[in-house]
Structures are given as C-alpha cells and as structure tokens.
Amino acid sequence: MYIAMVSSECAPVSKVGGLADVVFGLCRELEIRGNSVEIILPKYDCMRYDHIWGLSISHSGLWVPWYGGGVFCTVWFGFVHGRKCFFIEPHSQDNFFNRGHFYGSKDDVMRFAFFSRAALEFLYKDQRRPDIIHCHDWQTGLVPVLLYEIYTQLGMNNSRVCYTIHNFRYQGVTGREILGATGLNRPEYFLHYDRMRDNTYQNALNIMKGGIVYSNFITTVSPKHAWEARTGQGYGLEPTLQTHQNKFGGVLNGVDYEIWNPEIDHLIPHHYTYPLD
Predict the structure, then answer these.
(1) φ, ψ for residue 165, nearest 5 deg
(2) Residue 58's domain is classified under what CATH number?
(3) Does residue 139 belong to any structural domain of this protein?
(4) What is the bridge-based pairing of β-strands 132-136 and 2-6?
C-alpha cells in the first residue's frame, strides 16, 4: 500500500513529545512490512536540519487556496534516517512556521489548518493518490474533513483516512473563521452537532471532532485508552466516540528496539538483557 503520513511532528527533526516518536517508528515498521510510506510535515525554522539528508526543492510553486486567494509554497524533500519526508514551506506574511517553536502561537489553529489544506493540495496537484492518509491529533484533524468535502470531488475519492488521537485534552476548539480560510465555508452546515460543532460550546467548532466524524477509522494509543476515552476520559468527546465506536479502536504503542534497547543503548552505564541473572 501507499501510505501518506500527515503530521505536525516526526522524530528527530521536529519532536515535542511521543507523537514524533510514534510517527517515525510507525513509518519505519510499515516500510519493513512492504508498504510505500511518505511523511508530510511543516518546514519549521527550528527543525533539526542536521538529521535531514539530501534536502532539496521538490516543488517551487505549490499554490494553496487560502481565504479568497492563495499562498505560494515551496515543497522540500529529504530523508530523515531513511524515511521519505516532504516539508511544506508557505511564503506569506503570516510566517506560519518561522516562529522559533513548534507550538504555542496564538494562531496555532490557523497555522495547522493551513498545513492540512496544503498537505492535501500537494497530494492532489502532484497526482499522488495514497491508499491511506494517516493523520494525527487535532493539528491535522481537518485533513479528513477537507478530503471528504473538497478533494473527493476533485478525484481523490479512493483514499481512506486513519486518524490517530494521542492526546484527547487538546482538541482545536475554535471559531468559524477557519471555514472561510480553508474554503470549507458553510458555517451553518459544519456547526451541526453531527459534524464539527463542539459538544460543550454550541457556537464553536471542534477540529478533533471533525477528524473523528469524517475519518474511516480512528485509533488511540491502546485498547484500554480507547475504552477510557469513550467512558469518561474523552474531555467532552465521549458522546461522539460512542456514536462512532464501530470505527474506533486502540492499538498499543510499540517500542523501536533500535533506539530503546538496553542491550545496545549508549546512554546507560551498563547494558543488560532480560531476564536478569
């Protein structure tokens, strides 16, 4: 299968937490199992560029629809420890990813809404048709919404979306401005309870909820956590998860033994194996 991984992080180039490790390790394992995997990331100015090999321009004029016009982007390609990665660099006065940090800006919702639209526009314009688009957390929760509402009408109707939620606490609750920005428009349509309306705040949109509603399958970090999220630890998303429980499951996070291996880890004073003598 051809899998496009759309994420705000990937270790070790753009790592804040466990999401980055999962994206890198999962892509590596999927490739070992015979799949073709490409990762699409923002091109942050604070990335670890020393971990990118062969960084070069792949596309110099990607036009991404934004509000009533658009934003020109450069798409870069490079290998991150063997993984094929595309980095999207927008050229606009918003300066979305040249902030010296990955998260923490007041316009984070807009930054990653743009990235979600840009990732799909890149796949569409470059004639890439993944079998699976795998996106992660609220930052890319608009990807399945945009795919279903816009890009399936343009010919991307064979791609299916897997949406993995690593942290239910941060959901991308926001106002309707993102609809006009991304070209979704129709606030009365998307503010319906069965689509993207936040379960608590009736006049707010919830990006993570949109990802749940529009994805073909949703996963979280373990079967136990999937049960917990449906029954009290979903931070308000419990009713939505219950409604979509037939396409929601937990997949236990694994460990990359090439990194987390006490037999070879150079950061511990003594190597050991299991069982201990």
Answers:
(1) -105, 115
(2) 3.40.50.2000
(3) yes
(4) parallel
Q: Are 148 and 211 in contact (CB under 8 A)?
A: no
Domain assignment of residue 78, yes or no: yes
Q: Closest by alpha carbon to 137, among 2, 6, 42, 3?
A: 6
Encoding tokens for residue 185? Answer: 């428009």
pLDDT at 187 over 60: yes
Q: Which residues make Cβ contacts (< 8 Å) with residue 201, sequence separation at least 6?
A: 173
- pTM, whole model, 2 decimals? 0.95
> What is the predicted pLDDT for the residue at 143?
98
DSSP notation for 108-146: HHHHHHHHHHHHHHHHHHTT---SEEEEETGGGTHHHHH
Distance of CA 265 to the CA centre of its chain: 30
- Does residue 269 fall inside a structural domain? no
Return all residues near 52 (Cβ < 8 A) that are at least 6 apart: 13, 78, 79, 80, 85
Q: What is the pLDDT of residues 250-275, one digit of tens each?
A: 998 877 777 788 888 888 998 888 77
Range of the domain at 219: 2-250
How far is Cα 207 from Cα 213, in angstroms, rounded to an integer? 10
Please give the tally of structural domains in the chain: 1
Q: Is residue 272 part of a domain?
A: no
